[in-house]
Input
Amino acid sequence: MPFDAVLASATPGQAAAQWLARFQETLDKRDATAAANLFSPDGHWRDVLAFTWHITTRNGRTEIADELRRTFGSVGPRGFRLAEGRTEPRMVTRAGVDCIEALIAFETDIGSGAGTLRLVPDTQKPGGTKAWILATSLEEITGHEEKIGARRPGMEAFSRDFGGDNWLDLREQERAFADREPAVVVIGAGQAGLSIAARLKVLGVDTLVIDREKRIGDNWRTRYHSLVLHNEVHVNHLPYMPFPPNCPVYIPKDKLANWFETYADSMELNVWTETELLSGSYDEEAATWLLEVRQPSGSRTLKPRHVVMATGVSAIPIHPTDVPGLDQFAGDVLHSGAYTTGHAWEGRNALVLGTGNSGHDVAQDLHACGVNTTLIQRSSTYIVSLKEAQKVYAMYDEGPSVSDCDLLAMALPYPVAIRSYQMSTEEMRRADQALLDGLTKRGFKLDMGGEDATGFQMKYMRRGGGYYFNVGCSDLIVNGEIGLIQFDDIDTFVAEGAHMKDGSLVPADLLVTATGFKNQQDVVRTFMGDEIADRAGPVWGFSDGGELRNMWCRTPQPGLWFTAGSLAQCRIYSKYLALQIKACEEGFIPTERAEPVKKAA
Output
């Protein structure tokens, strides 16, 4: 074993402690070259606010040394050590690399930090180690810590006031914003909006969440009847309030929606439902937003300093414009976002355009409702069985707490993520080979998740779709119970359905367009105009630095922030988004990102 020489004289914990001590020595001397030489030649340093106030990755010794030189004087990093009370250092395999993995703690002039250290053997010094991956993150700002646990508000904050206002009176006054403007307005009350609102709440940042739906959770509650989350419950906890231990492994949409209501109430979040954003503009001189919103009782102008776009992936549906003859089709046309159940079309014919998760799920639901259903495939799709897909979250089954796993998951630089996803994708392909062969025989166009074969994870983060977790629809396609046609084989739509290039007709009474939703830059463009949208820049997809563009960070548009993603991403990164907003409020950093986000790699 490569680690034989290392472990012959030290435990994993001792080896990690020794590396941290050497690293701290180089920091004390401000010797960036010596610090970088403690990394392997292909080493990575991912920093989340602690040194840089950005979410950024430096690859290789030269980049690491350069970043350290830039930040030594302003950061004051000290006290690098093994984290107490967290998962003990241990031997693990990450992305095919055997390494010592340790959770760490440290301090800076701004606050306390945490992170992950992964060590590999030093090829030049038997028994020594080099850092393969170091991740550092800011956890708290000194003097502005979260008001939770031992720091939660004391009884003096809600003392009995006989004859005066009680807790409910005070909550209603806080939620009304009748006598003040919110510091932050969060647009959208899904997992992204609620997570950032909860983080800001415990940091003491006055925050209002607005949502156009009637109830909190309706963004899930109103979706198709059979919807269930595709990943397991232990990955999906919201900040501060884990799901109860009897929660189903795969959470049904209505249960999740109800939990969102419970969460908002328990965390005392200020949420206005039935509140629609009409328009927004930014007052450069006052550094304040002007948001026009409409409620059933009338309109109001809000003037926050910060706007967080938390509309996720379901704000504005994409209606296809390249379907020939669609205006001649006599049947019903629905976007998948408006589809609920197929019982109204029982015994009739339906076409579903799109072969991502929504398209497959809608097709399977229609089939279960007795509808003769055919999928239309526009482009190749990555298919993986639901059981195999959960393997990417295996870390959360290894024993560490959710908070420890979140730190470990964050320590995944882009190049390592690529390697990890390639390996897991190949493993999943082998396990699913019989299913994939069956789909190929039926004419289904498959891919492995792009040219680099990185599966659904990179498809999701690069384009937000293009994959399906098989919960049965693929089997129905293989068995011929659900039909399949290729979009390129359609000549034109006619009143009765799809007229094919070979002269045949695929009859349809319903067409469901599972064609996705516009991204958040398009949402900004719709409500705030081209100037603000263009200044902010692209959202989602990777920059050439290997980070998601404009996500959970300052943007070139002052006071405009974006959050989105899975429940796990919202839980993890809402912390760092909230810390940046708090830092802006306290004057530690400016609200504007100095440099634009470059195009995706």
About this structure: The chain is about 30% helix and 25% strand.
